[in-house]
Structure formats: C-alpha cells, structure tokens
Amino acid sequence: MIKHNKNRFVPILLSLGVVVGILLGSFFANHFSGNRLSIINNSSNKIFDLFHLIDDQYVDTVDIPDLVERSLPQILKELDPHSTYITAAEVEESMQDLKGSFS
Q1: Pair 36, 46: CB distance under 8 Å
Q2: What CA–CA distance (Å, rounded) separates 20 from 13?
Q3: Could you give the 3-state DSSP secondary structure of residue 87?
Q4: pLDDT tens, 22-60?
Q5: What's the rounded Cα separation, in Å, for the pair 67 and 54?
Q6: pTM
Q7: For residue 59, what is the DSSP state?
Q8: DSSP 63
Q9: Other C-beta atoms within 10 Å of 81: how many?
Q10: b/e map of 2-39 (b: 16 or more CB within 10 Å)?
Q11: Measured between alpha carbons, how far apart are the two ends of the chain, in Å?
C-alpha cells in the first residue's frame, strides 16, 4: 500500500518539472534575446527610414523595390566572401535544374 502511494506522485512531479522547465526556458529565451531583437529593430528602422526618405524626397523617381533588390547583395557582400543573396527567380531557375524523373 505504501509503495502504491509513492508511484502516484511520480506523474505529478514529472508534470510539475516539465511546466517549470517550460516557464524557465521561455523566460530566459525572452530575457536574453530581447537585446538582439532591439538592435535588429533599430537597424532595420534606419534602413526603412532611408528608403522612405529616398522615396519621399529624392528629386528623381526611384523604383524602391528594385533599389531594395539591388541593395541586398551589397549588404550581404559586406559580411564575408561566401554570403550571397539569391533572388526568387534564381532559386526557381536552379530548382529546375535539380528536378527530374527517374524511370
């Protein structure tokens, strides 16, 4: 009878441990990633503001989507020689080469 009472608490303790683990994990994930997210948001706001300023105040008409597409490879080029930007059309083209059928 005593052995049966001990086994009854094992699932409760395991469930409690899982809940505490989830809560601690989400707390630490939010706590430590918050700094990086604010840096990314501030930087992306600068880029957004720049494109908005160009679109709004530049003398000539500028195709902003095209400017963004041309800017992305330059940004990635600054990281290292191995990082590149691939457009959706280039991805589709490369996927066509990989598609095939086997008989």
Answers
A1: no
A2: 10
A3: coil
A4: 888 887 776 666 666 666 667 778 888 899 999 999 999
A5: 10
A6: 0.50
A7: S
A8: -
A9: 6
A10: eeeeeeeeeeeeeeeeeeeeeeeeeeeeeeeeeeeeee
A11: 66
